[in-house]
Amino acid sequence: MGTFIQLVVDGLSTGSVYAAIALAIVLVHQATGLINFAQGGMAVLAAYFAWWLTNQGLPLIVAILLSIVFSFALGAVVERWLMRRFERGDPDTAVVATIGLLTLITGIAGWLWTYNNQQFPSLFPLDTVSFLGVSVSIRSIGTTAVIVVAMILLQALFVGTKLGLALRAVAINPQSAAFSGLPVGRLLMVGWGLAAVLGAVAGALVAPQLTLTPGMLDNALVYALAAVILGGLTSPVGVVVAAWIIGVLENLAAVYVPFIGYDLKVAVPFILLFVVLIVRPQGLFGRKTVVRV
Amino acid sequence: MNTHFRSRTARGVAVVSALALTLTACGREGDGGGEGGASASPGITDESVTLGITTPLSGATAGPGTCTVAGVKAYFGAKNAEGGVEFGDGKTRTVDIRALDDTYDPQQAKANYDQLKNEVFAMTAGLGTPTNRAWRDAAIADEVPQVLVMTGDPLFSDTDESPWQLGFVPIYQNEGEAFGELLASSTEEHKVAILSQNDDYGEGYVEGFKSAIEGADNIEVVEELTYEATDTSVDAQLTELANSGADVFFNAMSVTPLMISALQKAQQLNWKPSWFLPSNTSSPGAILEPGGAAAYPGIYSVSFAKAPASPAFAQDEDVQAYLAALKEHGDYQDPPAFPHCQWSWMVGATLEQAFAEMTEPTRENFMEALRGIEGFQAPLMLEGTSVTTSEDGQPAVSTLNVQKFNGKGYDTVESFG
């Protein structure tokens, strides 16, 4: 029983990492209707920036806060000067552009800071607490708590604020939104900036565990995308729950389903994804897209 | 549109023809370089010899990869500054290094080889099993030496299968075996948990380890799991292994961040066995310190190179000369975090030994000279280890010392515990 609970707790902690990136992807999608493959890359860049600041002698928390400000600006600038040109065109073109951006950012990070693994200091201590025969690190608890707070804030933003409503309006129908007086361009920049902020938080949480490298989040990105689709593109709560399900299922399948084992466990989330999409194309928590004719 | 297209095609044809012409010219130059005796192979003149390297200089393996270039570049940079290296034919030549980035991608490694094969005398020092394998057949067909490469794959040390190859570092089996022998000689009973990478790397380690503990009554393997090199977490495996109650953990893992998180995770689970770590994932600065390895009763690894960071070698003459050259000639400013820098430096010294025995400027003659080295203690090698190239089935270095982490660096140990 102890093992089972430990595996579940470990899965939740891994899932929280996927959830952080997934939330940022959902935010950009809600604001622009695009899936941004460079989200993980931008998060890594923010983490490098924070790491560089700590090396200049700044305290970790200050460095992270500055990197959050930096990320907001970066996200807004990328939207205004790069993505704006693709947003009104073919969505496929825009997606390819974000993949190109990912490669570009990875290259720049490697060029500036080398591909060596860098040690990123952790906000939370490595200590563990025990209950029910399970040990959980403070770091996992801290990471999960931050993700849950981010999720609640994001849900509240979309559902409960004028800004959230405006962002959604711009995403669903930019032309009508513009006609009704919304500053579409500025809203798009804000959407991208906020998503980059979320990425920066994720990067700072994950970097101590994965060690900082330019490709640090490449693998996590794949799982985050699975969580986004599984949870439903429109629901912050949905993607976080989906990311947790993925993390936990992966662990349990490896240990308790003999023929899957550790070699096939990478496929588990995607098999689940196919099954869910066949039964519920809008994802577990997503809203159906309704088109009025 | 149409004319534009045509002009582009024409330009393409022009570029290709120009390229072909250049290539022919290069080929000629190589053929005609020799005077008297056998005609010289490509990449060598009376004044200089050029060596090629394909290795990861970007991507996840760039840290060790950059080192494989830096060491040998530093070694020959220092020699060139003194005038060059003396060859067995009486000539003194400077040694130039041409290194290309393969990002640990086999296809790119092959392309790099194709680009280098006509302008370099020999290929050397590159890191990576899949990447070195990608152009092994081509090197045999072209009769280009692919020597002292950094792979633990035994294939490269089999003279029949690989006549133009020789591995430098100990094969995976050597490392597993060295640790198994130490454990089997322990006077106590031990339960062993094994985690290994699901490929030739992990399998080689486990194979060597098991062959050494075969018949040892005091050793029992209680749990054995694998992971994929692309995994981002091995927490589940560690939870399962911790349950086995093993007091020794043989972790054949090649991925730096995973090794760090494994060291942290086992502590969090309050599982504190003695660890065995492969030589390429046992760096005190880059792995043990961030992993909090001091919490364990023993961290063992194997080595044949002096660790420059260890206080025991801080005053060592070899180490000081090496660090100075690395800065000045190797484009490597920091003290190296990976042993590959030291290995690559030894590759330089070993090549110099072979050059000293070469009587003709040909690749055949070089291979002959290279395979004749016995018991050469290269600079930076630990007491009790040496380079021997004449033994079929073994890489240039097959002797290893088992070492135990002392909180800063490693000390050689004779017994377990």
Automatic annotation (TrEMBL), chain A:
<dbReference type="GO" id="GO:0006865">
    <property type="term" value="P:amino acid transport"/>
</dbReference>
<keyword id="KW-1003">Cell membrane</keyword>
<feature type="transmembrane region" description="Helical">
    <location>
        <begin position="34"/>
        <end position="54"/>
    </location>
</feature>
<keyword id="KW-0472">Membrane</keyword>
<protein>
    <submittedName>
        <fullName>Branched-chain amino acid ABC transporter permease</fullName>
    </submittedName>
</protein>
<dbReference type="InterPro" id="IPR052157">
    <property type="entry name" value="BCAA_transport_permease"/>
</dbReference>
<feature type="transmembrane region" description="Helical">
    <location>
        <begin position="187"/>
        <end position="208"/>
    </location>
</feature>
<feature type="transmembrane region" description="Helical">
    <location>
        <begin position="60"/>
        <end position="82"/>
    </location>
</feature>
<dbReference type="GO" id="GO:0005886">
    <property type="term" value="C:plasma membrane"/>
</dbReference>
<keyword id="KW-0813">Transport</keyword>
<feature type="transmembrane region" description="Helical">
    <location>
        <begin position="6"/>
        <end position="27"/>
    </location>
</feature>
<dbReference type="Pfam" id="PF02653">
    <property type="entry name" value="BPD_transp_2"/>
</dbReference>
<keyword id="KW-1133">Transmembrane helix</keyword>
<keyword id="KW-0029">Amino-acid transport</keyword>
<comment type="similarity">
    <text>Belongs to the binding-protein-dependent transport system permease family. LivHM subfamily.</text>
</comment>
<feature type="transmembrane region" description="Helical">
    <location>
        <begin position="220"/>
        <end position="247"/>
    </location>
</feature>
<feature type="transmembrane region" description="Helical">
    <location>
        <begin position="94"/>
        <end position="114"/>
    </location>
</feature>
<dbReference type="GO" id="GO:0022857">
    <property type="term" value="F:transmembrane transporter activity"/>
</dbReference>
<dbReference type="InterPro" id="IPR001851">
    <property type="entry name" value="ABC_transp_permease"/>
</dbReference>
<feature type="transmembrane region" description="Helical">
    <location>
        <begin position="259"/>
        <end position="279"/>
    </location>
</feature>
<feature type="transmembrane region" description="Helical">
    <location>
        <begin position="145"/>
        <end position="167"/>
    </location>
</feature>
<keyword id="KW-0812">Transmembrane</keyword>
UniProtKB/TrEMBL annotation, chain B:
<keyword id="KW-0732">Signal</keyword>
<feature type="domain" description="Leucine-binding protein">
    <location>
        <begin position="49"/>
        <end position="406"/>
    </location>
</feature>
<dbReference type="InterPro" id="IPR028082">
    <property type="entry name" value="Peripla_BP_I"/>
</dbReference>
<protein>
    <submittedName>
        <fullName>ABC transporter substrate-binding protein</fullName>
    </submittedName>
</protein>
<dbReference type="InterPro" id="IPR028081">
    <property type="entry name" value="Leu-bd"/>
</dbReference>
<comment type="similarity">
    <text>Belongs to the leucine-binding protein family.</text>
</comment>
<dbReference type="Pfam" id="PF13458">
    <property type="entry name" value="Peripla_BP_6"/>
</dbReference>
